[in-house]
Amino acid sequence: MKFGYTFAMPSLHARRRGWRLLVVAAGCVSVVLTTGAAGAGAQRGDDSGTSPLLVAENVVYKEGGDPVRNALDVYAPSGASGLPVLFYVHGGALRAGDKRNLHDKPQFFAERGFVLVSPNYRLSPEVVHPAHIEDVAAAVAWVVENVHDYGGDPERLVFMGHSSGALLGGLLTTDEHRLGAHDLSLDTLKGAVLLDGHTYNLAASMESFHGKEVPKEPISKFTERPEVWRDATAMEHIAKGKGIPPMLLVSGGIQFQHWPVGEAAEEFAAALREAGAEAEVFMAEGKDHGDVNRDVTSGDEMSRAILEFLVKRAR
Asked: How many CB atoms neighbour CB 155 within 10 A?
């Protein structure tokens, strides 16, 4: 995650949805986008709790887990049986967001024959890496064990994550130890769509400070220890022969904060291909960071590319 003397204003489109700015100062200045009121309800795209498709709510997916942060929801069409399963992980900089941040994804994917599972996970600063990814891996393990009860086929499981959810997806699909802790392999996931992620090479960004003080905001998630940064870096875990699943990396065509458009996705995809994994990049021209997530269900070119990828991989 690159930090420096940067200042990025959200688009008018984003500001109308209640975006606000947090300035993080620790020898340098960065801007972090959050939404209206902080907390579990932030960034909610719809009141998914009232959806008739909601077949399981607030299911605690790990033994002794927090009843809020370690809970998930399941959405399924009526009469579901043996359907592909979309596991969706929300964004929020690992500090905010909620499993209900779905916009109209439950309806959209139910109409196309998917069961959708959306988990919460513990957030910083209360926890640091690897707590976030450990939670997501535990939620996947719950899905594999239980989703058949809700009409899903665990052999047809695909992943989608936005922003920091894409960071977690990058780790989940490259670091075999996360799913391995639950006796699962990387190919448990048949494919992954990563929506506008920017921190697949976290360690390189953090180490770029070269002795300068690292801002408090990333430290609150990844500590001050370089070995933790590397462990939280998907690029560090890429290797041949691991069974890394195919990936579709979607990049917004409008610059988000200080991140160069498309750079993170192209770099990650190139490393995956070099290791023999399948990876493609879709450049979502004219879309900002939030649009990439909201427009998954729009039916436009990006939406169609994502759906085509998911259907193909979840056969």
From this structure: 13
